Amino acid sequence: MGILKKFLNNASRPKGTLGKIMLSGMTFGHRWLSAWGLSHLDGVKASTVIDLGCGSGANALKLLEMFPSAHVTGADYSPLSVAHSKRKLEREIAAGRCAVVEANVADLPFEDASFDLATAFETVYFWPGPLESFCEVVRILRPGGVFMISNEAGGLEDMPVDWGRWVDGLNCYDGAALERFLREAGFSQVTVDRRPKLGWLCVVAHK
Ligand SMILES: C[S@@+](CC[C@H](N)C(=O)[O-])C[C@H]1O[C@@H](n2cnc3c(N)ncnc32)[C@H](O)[C@@H]1O
Q1: Which CATH number covers residue 21?
Q2: pTM
């Protein structure tokens, strides 16, 4: 396998030296998508938030700023991502405002109805199902809770890069496919927003 392919495959589960480089790169490279995704949460009230597939921890940090009285949990199944996030969020963890856990989204170690808001940036491409994973998200959200998905690869022809061809195991879903899975999982109200030309996708679903 070429070094570029090896590097890009770290997007699904960062590990080793290339994984460390990938995590630092994601903090920088995903910041515009993150800001756009977060702008869809204006008006959402949340005291318990979880960022699923938290990667470097950069989005958990933004969520802590955006919801200053909330507790924010980061969850990721990559031990390297968890270690990176714990370092980034060291102060917030010490202050009792944040936790980072190693977990697969398909089997989350949380009680039913534990969270008001769940976010997923650049990660549902890799989730098992994704229907079974979305069912887990429904389970851990309280009634009325919100789930926000932000994807750079929005699954339509206007994607500048077809990441599905570059990264093994990356499934590019379009908004209609995600909406179907979300409704089947039990979400009632689903809205899909797109950034044409950039190919980005943001989906907000209510339990
Ligand atoms: C491309 S990175 C995105 C990281 C971060 N959300 C961001 O926007 O920068 C995908 C992350 O999702 C995590 N991930 C993928 N599948 C997962 C699963 N089934 N359960 C938990 N984490 C998962 C990976 O380990 C990786 O850290």
Answers
A1: 3.40.50.150
A2: 0.96
